Amino acid sequence: MKIQVINPNTSALMTAKIEQAAQAIARPGTHIVASCPEDGPVSIEGHFDEAIATVGLLNEIRKGMQQGYDAHVIACFGDPGLLAARELATGPVIGIAEAAFHMASLISTRFAVVTTLIRTRIIAEHLLERYGMANLCTSVRCIDEPVLALEDTNPQLIERIAEEGRKAAREGAGAIVLGCGGMADLRSPLTEAIGLPVVEGVTAAVKLAEALLELRLSTSKVGDLAYPVAKPFKGQFAHWGAT
């Protein structure tokens, strides 16, 4: 099986980190390739960034379909463009936040999220509500560092994430969800440092994509996730007119 892992921001360093984590967790025979758009924000830290990044993400989805990928992972914790991508794609599309929440709910009755900037806390809380997981989450905690600080993590930054995880554990969380695709390589060191199971969304999404493909399950094309209605597009989006 072939799984495309898309980093919706334009950071090549973060994309390489995400690809390495995905390849390390994939089973033998699963072919993983990570990509990122050529155009768009260098990091995604708000609603505006998500809106701009979604166009590049959908372009990457279409490229992946043309290249024969069986499933797609959106490796940003805001799950930007997830439903639009599911409309477009023929195979399963997994967002890393939704994947991580579901995995955490299978191993704990309550979990906490540790993410980056304080301003993104509300976005994570809205996702928890949308996915029906809000009552399982004890807190969304933030280290208040920009996403790009995770391109090259250092022991001090890892300790700041770990300390928020330990605080969540003292408040009753049974597992920790890492709230950024840039944390893809930190699951093992943080599990040891926090002393709780740590769920990381990129790796969780890859395993769910593998499971869906083995079960021969894909997005229902009846209802709102049917393929996009064919119509003309104008200007810089004219190439979407054949969709």
UniProtKB/TrEMBL annotation:
Q: Domain of life, per the record?
A: Bacteria
Question: Which InterPro entries is this protein grouped with?
Answer: Asp/Glu/hydantoin_racemase (IPR015942), Hydantoin_racemase-like (IPR052186), Iso_Racemase_Enz_sf (IPR053714)
The record's PANTHER family line, in alphabetical order, gives: PROTEIN DCG1
Q: What protein name does the entry list?
A: Asp/Glu racemase
Q: Which family does it belong to?
A: Belongs to the HyuE racemase family.
